[in-house]
UniProtKB/TrEMBL annotation:
Keywords: ATP-binding, Kinase, Nucleotide-binding, Transferase
Binding, ATP: 106
Biased composition (Low complexity): 31-41
Kinase among keywords: yes
Residue ranges with Pro residues bias: 21-30, 43-57
Classification via InterPro entries: DUF4384 (IPR025493), Kinase-like_dom_sf (IPR011009), Prot_kinase_dom (IPR000719), Protein_kinase_ATP_BS (IPR017441), Tyr_kinase_AS (IPR008266), Tyr_kinase_cat_dom (IPR020635)
Organism: Pelomonas caseinilytica
Domain of life: Bacteria
Lineage of the organism: Bacteria, Pseudomonadati, Pseudomonadota, Betaproteobacteria, Burkholderiales
Tagged with keyword Signal: no
Region (Disordered): 1-71
Matches recorded under SMART domains: TyrKc
Protein name: Serine/threonine-protein kinase
Amino acid sequence: MNPPASSTPDDNDATIIRPIGPAPAGPVPALPAALDDAATVIAPPPGAGPAGPPPAARPDRHEGGNALPVGSRQAEFEITRVLGEGGFGIVYLARDHLLERMVALKEYMPAALALRGEHSQVRVRSERHRDTFEAGLKSFINEARLLAQFDHPSLVKVYRFWEANGTAFMVMPFIEGKTLKDTLREMGGPPGEDWLMAMLAPLTEALLVLHGEHCYHRDIAPDNIILLRGSGMPLLLDFGAARRVIGDMTQALTVILKPGYAPIEQYAEVPSLKQGPWTDVYALAAVIYCAITGRTPPPSVGRIVKDDYVPLAQLAQGRYSERLVQAVDRALQVMPEQRIASMEAFREALGLGGVDAPRPSQMATLIQAPAPAPTPAAAAAPAPARGRGALLAGLGLAGVAAAGVAAYLLTRPPAPAEGTATAAVPAATAPAPIAAPAPAPATPPLAAAPAPADLHAQFLDLVAHHSPGFDVQAQAERTELRIDRDELRFSVTPSRDGYLYVLMAGPDGSLTQIYPNDKARNNRVSARQAVKLPQSSWPLKASEPAGLEDFLVLVTAEPRSFAPWALEKDPAYGFLTLPARGPATGTPAGAPSWLLGQPDCGRPACAAEFGAAVFSLEVVR
């Protein structure tokens, strides 16, 4: 048995972290020489933000090396900075010139096997390395293809990937956040159980998604989990599939494991010690153990000889529930057959509730052709009033939209050719706040109802024009709701005080204000305080028809009103049915300002500052 090399401060695959705040003046500090290519970049957008001017080029310490030059283009992406160069690849900060955002561009470049030739081409150093290089390249592409099909808020997103120049690239979000490792260090003491459970709920759900596709992370550790700025949502990073394949094929490059987090089956190639869901269960339990005790469990390979593991039930007695500590101790059994065997079982042991393993399609980016244009007769008919049943026609998380560098706003363009990766639309840095529309007539004539994709695009457009510094996070509790069984639940967290409004677009082009309503009139919200909806007084259960619904979550600085535009009010809850395109007076150029509603602050002029987020849900039979 040849155990892989243990990580050290110089050779680990730590995520690149930049401090939140303005970019420092002067040269950018050099990054670790052995920085791993699989690291995901988490940093604030330099300068004016993700849609602002590109940062100044760093001193060209890569001259003569393998990095692509600053200013060069790969497809629509212009390289503006080299963020990290390591043994297996290079991470760049790049500008997406089609969608006007900053992204992390990762290039497969195993330095020990290949080098950069003329015209940016990558070639192997020797023919004896070709098979190893191509195996790693295939794994890199397969990982990108796998991640691109998922849209879970706790899984890093791949916007697109492609092969070029003898190698491959993937484009991922450029995200603000802080690692769990740093967060725990700054806490100065163990976190509370409620905090831990709030973090574990989305993480374990994300791992269920991966395991449903027979994909295992195999590198879960506190420095591979980040907490997103603003929402605190945990995000799982750094799969490193290419690194593992290469490590299996050459003695020159070894798999890097993190002692204390890697279970015994990752150290041995023995048929009886296969890797599976239990591998990630062990690593995640080790993360919990470290968070509570401040130290990692003893390395599993040493526990085979002498097991000096001190049970969490002993170390944390009286400070955490018996359920939690017993679940962690069971998940940290050395031998796989004695361990909690699946993420579903681990969730149940933790008290997070048993859930069905999500099918791959639940998390996949949803692609559909635009709906056909309405017939003249249909266009003339007003949208019907919608009660509780019709309101939930389609529920399933497509993503979380937030101002700044949020990366989960999804469009639904025409279906691409087979094998084409999908793209996400960022919430761009806003121009001046959109002016409130002039008061509309009491009963405005209606324009033709747009296709659902049109309303979805208008929602995204409004988010893209949010007021600077006015961020909103919105997230659904579940990714898929079953008709007549599951209820809609979501949470909203604004960065500023304001007034909360939730609009829902139906697949028939209808538009409904579901909050506030007659059963919940007080829509005042506070900065950084999560609001959970619907409230118990107006539960909403999924019902026919099955399909997709888009939700616009709007927080405004001062009260707004949609009542003058309403066609009808639902008698049970007081939901307002709105015209799908707003007042007939038209929409100003730019974002659909009518979605802000009309001033309702009791003064002639009412500030139109706002933040917004979008999510989409799916209901199934």
